[in-house]
Amino acid sequence: MLEAAAHILERDGLDGYSTNAIAERAGVSIGSLYQYFPGKAAITRALILREMTVLRDDIVGIDSTLGGKERLERLISAAVANQLRRPVLARLLDVDEARLPPDENVDRLAAETAQVFQEILAAADMPDTAAKPYVTGDVIAIIRGMVDAAGRRGETNAQGLVERVVRAVSGYLGL
Amino acid sequence: MLEAAAHILERDGLDGYSTNAIAERAGVSIGSLYQYFPGKAAITRALILREMTVLRDDIVGIDSTLGGKERLERLISAAVANQLRRPVLARLLDVDEARLPPDENVDRLAAETAQVFQEILAAADMPDTAAKPYVTGDVIAIIRGMVDAAGRRGETNAQGLVERVVRAVSGYLGL
Amino acid sequence: MLEAAAHILERDGLDGYSTNAIAERAGVSIGSLYQYFPGKAAITRALILREMTVLRDDIVGIDSTLGGKERLERLISAAVANQLRRPVLARLLDVDEARLPPDENVDRLAAETAQVFQEILAAADMPDTAAKPYVTGDVIAIIRGMVDAAGRRGETNAQGLVERVVRAVSGYLGL
Amino acid sequence: MLEAAAHILERDGLDGYSTNAIAERAGVSIGSLYQYFPGKAAITRALILREMTVLRDDIVGIDSTLGGKERLERLISAAVANQLRRPVLARLLDVDEARLPPDENVDRLAAETAQVFQEILAAADMPDTAAKPYVTGDVIAIIRGMVDAAGRRGETNAQGLVERVVRAVSGYLGL
DNA sequence: CATGAATGAGTGTTCATTCAT
DNA sequence: TATGAATGAACACTCATTCAT
What we know:
The structure is a homotetramer.
Chain A: H1 2-16, H2 19-26, H3 30-36, H4 40-60, H5 68-85, H6 87-97, H7 104-121, H8 135-153, H9 158-173
Helix pairs in contact in A: 1-2, 1-4, 1-6, 4-5, 4-6, 4-7, 5-8, 5-9, 6-8, 8-9
Chain A binds a DNA duplex through helix 3.
């Protein structure tokens, strides 16, 4: 059912993203949909959570004994892979999330992910500037912005994209 | 009428962005709205055009006798100012544009803007890499991503933001 | 449109009382219905108001220079006529009103009507008991109860019913 | 299960009165509910029957050797007690009964109850008028109307209410 | 017998668009 | 040209009922 929702969102965009369409695509009745989710918002939230969890898990799994530069690269690699996996979905979920009331679980997951970013940016071999406020936000924004645009252009070559993002972030940090 | 649409979008978001609300806010009847615009999509497109034109004009006005680095900084400055002027509007228009079928005028304006970017990146004192494909797109994406995120965080200090964006773009270009 | 709602309520009961049915019966689209009423509750409230207003006007028009007994009889006559006019509608509105949140206009109208009852019961030639609390409520309840039951039995002879109600109320008051 | 239905009806009104809610409250599955009752209507009917049976039994138990006036008072006392026991339930069942198709068992029970009324009203020390048609219906309506209104006002003092109802009925009968 | 997931017709409501005035 | 009442497809959601396990 979540996968059906994801598919609809990717294929038809926000306009086609209706509970009836989701149910039909999932091959269940609209009534069943509402037995698993209390409402449309819950479906979207679950979808967001699912996508965010993949990234969080990838990122948390990065070997913390590695140097900061190496970890940063791996982090970017994970973020790129995550966004490139389903670029349209990632973008639309991002958009729709803004309409939803804040959700505890989503917020927690976002905080956990940001935490990993912050730890990496505070590593020993990182410049002092990297620990400043807003830096984490900037780095995330750079990654998101570049990968999003690449996704919209239809880029699929993750390796090349990762290299460019690494260059941008490294440059920003003064590495 | 366009300003009414902009206001509604900023104040009520995509959910409140209805033709009736726009007409009421503009102080005209819904019938009149449809005499000036063939449909809701046309209103949004006109709004997008209006906002893009401001940026294009600012950018086109940059003194082309200046060095590439200086022009790049001015360009970023203009982009930041443009996005920070009405951050919510800029973001929502961006989102809603994706729903609309491609539009000739919008595309032309985007191409014109990108053209200026490209010329600056191809300036004599710029590294060779800057002329490669993707680079223009990447730079635009970095700027958009960072400024968007800043707008969402509620940042209003354009000067500090410009500096950070310049740093990111310069780093990315290897300046 | 109100008349359509009334008709549906009378013919199909609360079960058939849907906005779509009302619109269809009224010969307008569902959209038009919602241009005149903000919601289903508003339709029901307007209907209640309409019915209550008839009774209030009848009752307020009773010549206040008459003796208490005479006025009481006229009041009962008016109440009977009102309830017998559309007995099913009166009853169902009564039921549905209980589901609705309290409404200022309805409450005011009810208070105005009760006020007239109270004034008549406090007339000079009325027994002292008539002025006691709960008496107004009891009298209204007797009238409503008897007339409602008569309506459900299909009685249409107002004159005979009025006599019996007068007898009950007079007996209750000790006249 | 019936008690669960009664509880839901009292606590949540007709809006909350759903088969799922009843089953949950009763601690059984919705499937089991449908093994004991063929449908929602049957549950409501059974509930009506249960409540009516209590009154019928009370009334049938009245000593038939007593005088008519005394028996009438006892009957009213029983009716008041019955309605005041669970005033909200009594009222809502009354309302919901109107939606249901007529039921043999309910009708029989109602007839039995009315029969007792009629016998009392035909007692030797009762006025001739009491035996007329409509009188039984009127008396029942007076009692129901007054007690219902009292229940809605939140009255709980049965004794005072019984006295007032007796006064109304006696007055009506010309006692 | 008991279960509860599945069903889908039906509900109240919104909103982009049209067109007679 | 301006108006705004009218339209109706579409939406999110509910709930009485069924039936495979």
